[in-house]
Description:
A: mainly alpha, 9 helices, B: five-stranded mixed beta barrel, two-stranded antiparallel ribbon, 13 helices
Amino acid sequence: MKAPPVFRRAKAFLTEQGHDSANLAVQCFGGHGYIRETGVEQNVRDARIGCLYEGTTGIQALDLIGRKILGTQGARLNNYTKTINAFCEANQENPVAAGFISELVKHTKEWGELTMQIAGGAMKNPDELGAASVDFLMYSGYVVLAYYWAQAAIVADKALQAGTTEEDFYKAKITTAKFYFQRLLPKTRGHVATMNSGAKNLMELDADHFAF
Amino acid sequence: MTVYQAPQRDMKFVMDELLDMPSHYASLPGCEDASVEIIDAIREEGAKFATNVLAPLNRTGDEEGCSWSEEGVKAPSGFREAYDQFREAGWPSLMHDPEFGGQGLPFSVANMFLEMCGTANYSWATHTGVTGGAIETLHAWGTEEQKNTYIPKMVEGIWSGTMCLTESHAGTDLGLLRTKAEPQEDGSYNISGTKIFITQGEQDLSDNIIHIVIARIAGAPAGTKGISLFLVPKFFPGANGELGERNTVTCGAIEHKMGLNASPTCVMNFDGAKGYLIGPANKGLQCMFTFMNNARLGCAGQGLGHAEFGFQQSLAYAKDRLQMRALTGPKNPELMADPIIVHPDVRRMLLTQKCIAEGGRMFTYDIAKMLDVVQRSTDEEVKAELDDALGLLTPIAKAFLTEQGHDSANLAVQCFGGHGYIRETGVEQNVRDARIGCLYEGTTGIQACQSLLNGAGA
């Protein structure tokens, strides 16, 4: 069975984010995080390979945009965003999802537009594909994770409505979902801006002029 | 096999063209002799030392690490010999006061030299960094007798220094410190307590180690208002410049770390060690401020160094490594594949590193130029203005460049693909060595608070 494109993205996005998270654990320890006995620096070292093997992040990104998305004329992405949109429609009246749903709708629409834009650019110049690929992958990862956090908040809310002895656990899910939408999802803005800047700023410098 | 070449053209661009250092030196009291020819010569000789002596010891130093025994701490093979060359060439004295044997060159010149040493081998260079900090602190706050006794030998490089601040429960929050100082009848103090994370606290590069220690005098107020600064020599100075008796300060252990394995990070035990007050009692933290500012600039330079080192390795690799074809068609049809530098994403990673390395050089050299003025100008108004700017820019430089330097180092690994995970390439060591920059001398989070407070005029 072939993995759907969303899982392909998962490898690159989650290994990069996992490595960043491992570095944040070291940062929480301050100087003590640099000491081997705490185990958190090993966690960073062990995490680092994930972004390299089974195809580096860059290769995953090219595969995603080139073969999995444009290779299917966007059909795969369309199918996936349809699922998200159906979820959004079903939950738009849910008060706990206020703020989540509108962001998701906005991003799924933008996701499709970015895809078209990259496809258009790549027809004229194939380097446009490579230039946008990693930003596109990270963008995609943030949107997919937003979809999961919105689902988690809604499931947690249902559990709270139904009555539970684990009120704190479910409330923490909703609070964390808010953090995700307000502090992590906005990182898509940077990725959109760099994608929009095109391939020229990457290809212009002669290979012999990187250093003198 | 890693190679480091000092980016001399870019250094000269920043020094001579961008920042116009020649006019700056011409107008700086005591620095009129720092001509373009002199600076060029220092850069060229420094580049040779960094490339030929320090860089070859970077990988081997990481693999071998430092070793601890009851007798002391041993640096990895070759480190002592490199230090001897450094000392014999007169490098330790570059920026120090001619009254104590220094060459009196501006700080920004030493900063340029230190960039090359640190990029070639940061572990080795920590020794010079902490000794410089100890000299500056003594120079600013020591008595005439203390200065005359200790500074000349430290400037010569025969003795070195440390800064002993952190305790296991007191890192950022130094007000919690427990190390005690009991006043003695002869005016000295008995220092008792344990310090951790002391860079170069014990080593075999120099003959004596002068520890600058913060401690609380018996009966002093709790918190930061009861902290004083002390000088605690490993060996007391004897007659005729010989080493005297051994003081009761010893290294209990060295840490096992993620990186900087060739730089000993020591647990230091002070067992009633004899120490001498530096500066006014209970004003120890204020006395440390100068040092801490300069140490943060040193860290910012570390960030740029790791970006530069990774950039050099990954650029060479990207031009050499043949894999796949360019998206736009073969660029190298006669060979089996194209060099990976044809790929836009590889170029993104290389250009990011280049921007941080060259941008970091502009940023840190400019801060060094401002420090020159603060240290030497006679115009109090200009000094106050630049001191203010430094309060804002130094934490930004430290936190931003160490974070970006670490990210850049990771991009170098990414350019190497799976090969970057292999120690022999040197680029994974570069990440491990870079990681400490975001932690010591105040974590990124602490710098962020400091920068906001200073920016708001607090």
